[in-house]
Amino acid sequence: MDDSRDVTAVTRVPLGRRTFLGGVGVAALGATGLGGISLFTGATLSPAAAATAVPEADKDPLNLLQRMLSYDTQNYGKGANTRAHAQMLKAVWENAGVPAEIIDTPQPDNVHLIARIPGSSSAAPLLMLGHSDVVPVEREAWSVDPFSGTVRNGEVYGRGALDMKGANSATISALLRHISEGSRFERDIIVLTDCDEEAGSFGSGWLAANHWSKVNAGMVLTEGGWFLAQKDRTTPMLITATRQDKVYFNLDLTADGTATHSSKPNPDSAIVTLSRAVAELGSWLAPVHLTEVTREYFAALAKATDDAEFARAVKLMLSARSQNARERAASVVVSKSSYPWLHRALLRTTHAFVIEDSGYKENVIPSSAHVRLNCRGIPGGQKPREFLAQVREMTARRGIQVTLAAPAGKTEEQYLDELDERWATAPADIDTPLFRALAGAASETYPNAVFAPALFEAGTSLAPWRERGIPGYGVYPYVLDNDQLITMHGNDERIYVEALRQGTAFMYRTFSRFLS
């Protein structure tokens, strides 16, 4: 890595530790307005700036988030109905004097929304990329209505509260506060609320192919980096901005057996054979691979934590000289982490069983059984083709057929070559105004935490910009505990209300660095 990495070396400010329930500017986010006084800086505004009218409800991130959550934008795999949600946000932007446009896709009511805040120069725009679609819910497993935005015990619940309507709310509310104060940005700021991020044919790739002039930018910020807490679950510990995503691919595992009447169980049952392979793979972990990006992340984590034993374990893992020593240390790191699932995922290629299907009638033992394995590889770590070979070797003795789920029209080798290219893609450059703005805002908003670049364990819509060499980063701008993190794509998805407010202050300060 070049010398630009120095921008991440944010040291702790020697102040008393405070949770996100305090902090500069946070309480003001719920205020109802103070005339000509900036809610964040306390500075007196000019008459023109003070007269800029933006509804208080739109500047309140909780109010705005609850409205977003009320729209059912579930995406079952082929896109979602996002029109009503987009129309609501379009009105929010237009009430603030910001032009906004709904972009229709070939799928009815599956739309993108683009708002553009004009800047004072021709500098390449800053693009804020947030998706409006959400994964489906298992309503019976929720303790509240997933589309109600219920607040309970200081947390706001709803599908998308974390991923990623909460981030959209923090971003939009922060920008609207600047607009209400008469701020002028030194470049255009584009806010894209896209569709089909969770699945579908008309996401950011389609939008870039058909409307690139509307989303062409110099830097992009989307979902990604986590804001982690100390073991008390609320005190900010590590603030990250992701500069790289893991490589996404799927494997299909199939077992064959004899089909017969269910009254005569057979020893070569396809379901039993596959289940044994699933159990074996379910308890197996791919090898640990540390890259330059993940080494920097874990070094920052060791610096940030108040847990001395955890810090020692991380340092031991980073200094390990053999793979066996690294594996042993990594196991200790995960066992002592307050975010064990996240940190295990950042250390290796992951595999998760997501869809299983077999059989068609209760009195028939089927001749085949299938399970899909969703995999995420670390760029610069283990190659997807190496992982595929490893899985095939492990399951061969059971006669399991392992197939790489390649896109239509591509052979396995062609798709492996494509995955190799993604695997070799360099992380986003951090010597940019946007990354420096994120680092500076983190230092101001979370003065006792450490800021660092990171790897995102999942994926984003950034591909069209990354393919064009445009740097893209990710943040979820609210401190989460592990229980909340697990609700991402799960049940009772939720975030802390005060964390959302402080995250909005973080976004406000990020945008402050782009004022003209």
TrEMBL record:
Q: Which organism is it from?
A: Streptomyces yanii
The record's keywords, sorted A to Z, are: Hydrolase, Metal-binding, Protease, Zinc
What InterPro entries does the record tag this protein with? ArgE/DapE_CS, Pept_M20A, Peptidase_M20, Peptidase_M20_dimer, TAT_signal
Coiled coil where? none
Q: The organism sits in which domain of life?
A: Bacteria
Please state which protein family the record places this protein in. Belongs to the peptidase M20A family.
Q: Where is the Peptidase M20 dimerisation domain?
A: 251-396
The protein, known as: M20/M25/M40 family metallo-hydrolase
